[in-house]
Amino acid sequence: MKKLLFSLMIAGVSAVSYNAQTSQVWSWSAISSTAYSENTLVNNIAFIPGGGSGFGVVDKSDVDFPDNGVELPAFSGSYRLKTGGNSYANSNPSNFANFTRRYFYFKVEGASNIKIYFRHGSSSGTRTLYVTDGTNVIGSKSITASTGTDSQLGSFVINYTGPAGNIYFGGTENIGIYKIEATNVGQTALPQVLGVNDVKSLTKAIAFSSGNKVYIKDLESKNTEINVYSTNGSLVKSLKTSVDTDFDINTKGLYIVNMKSENGEKSVKVLIK
Fold first, then answer.
1. Which residues lie across from 25 on neighbouring strands?
2. d(C-alpha 138, C-alpha 20), whole Å
3. What is the dihedral of CA 98, 254, 203, 163, to 10 degrees?
4. Which end of the chain has fewer CB atoms within 10 angstroms, the N or the C?
5. At 154, is the secondary structure helix, strand, or coil?
6. Residues whose CB is less than 8 angstroms from the CB of residue 48 and which lie 6 or more positions away in sequence, other chains included
7. What pLDDT, on the 0 to 100 scale, is given for residue 125?
8. Which residues of the chain have pLDDT under 70?
9. In this predicted structure, what is the pLDDT of residue 260?
10. pLDDT for 148
11. Residue 79 confidence (pLDDT)
């Protein structure tokens, strides 16, 4: 019941039906909320705490964003979504696109214009908001704050030109997100963490690991899609291949390799050491 009430409370979202070229605005017009403790889908955004604390709190916080002089007009925000801390397993990740906790995403159906208003979570230091396609950083902005609200504010635009997929948001330390607008928004789904036997296998393809390398063998299809997920559902790597292949994953841990073709689908757990 609490989850249902909370889902209803996070209003302030405008959208039309989920079709190509659908525009959606998130501005968190809600009363205060508690942090997420599990993967949750609210108003077409998937929130993934990944074990991180303090993630997803929405609170009242009035602030006026000035016209940034380049891309975005002035905006008066009243509510913020707080990330609660950094989105990485350590404070110095090798790839800032590889979120492991405290991140959220929505789906786009292809090219999308994405506008973001956010605030540094403190009055000092440098904090960066990263936006990724699950593999690469497609946009980011850093703020080095000082005393005074204006120094803590940031806004930027991303003109995404890639294929349909999820757009992920995360960053370093706590950041307050006041508003996101996006075009060409699709229907977002929560990640499914698949076990070895969770998907009916209609293919003979196999996946296994040795050290930090993953091997894909015995492909039957000329067009096999391979997606690698962390155990919290974050997309780590994506590729298509017609031949046996291998690739590196540089972060230790357990991963799910999903192989899909016209011959069927298979998911296999691999351990990177």
1. 14, 181
2. 21
3. -10
4. N
5. strand
6. 39, 99, 101, 102, 103, 104, 105, 191, 232, 233, 234
7. 81
8. 1-21, 30-32, 146-151, 192-203, 221-222, 232
9. 83
10. 56
11. 93
Give SS3 for 38. coil
The predicted pLDDT at position 135 comes to: 84
The HSE-up count of residue 100 (CA atoms within 13 Å, CB side) is 17
Is 61:28 a contact under the CB 8 Å cutoff? no
Query: Could you tell me which of 123, 235, 73 has the C-alpha nearest to residue 170?
Result: 235
**pLDDT at position 200:** 45
**Is residue 188 a contact partner of residue 106, using CB atoms and an 8 Å limit?**
yes
Residue with tokens 């690469």: 136
Q: Which region, left, alpha or beta, applies to residue 85 given φ > 0 means left and ψ of -120 to 50 means alpha?
A: left
Question: Nearest CA to 261 among 214, 233, 227?
Answer: 227
**H or E segment at 9?**
helix 2-9
CB 179 within 8 A of CB 25: yes
Residues whose CB falls within 8 Å of the CB of residue 250, separated by 6 or more in sequence, listed in order: 94, 95, 212
Looking at residue 141, its pLDDT comes to 92
Strand (E) or helix (H) holding 45: strand 45-48
Q: How far apart are CA 62 and CA 59, in angstroms?
A: 10
β-bridge partners, 183: none
Cβ 171 vs Cβ 129: under 8 Å: yes
Sequence-distant (≥ 6) Cβ neighbours of residue 32 within 8 angstroms = 57, 58, 59, 60
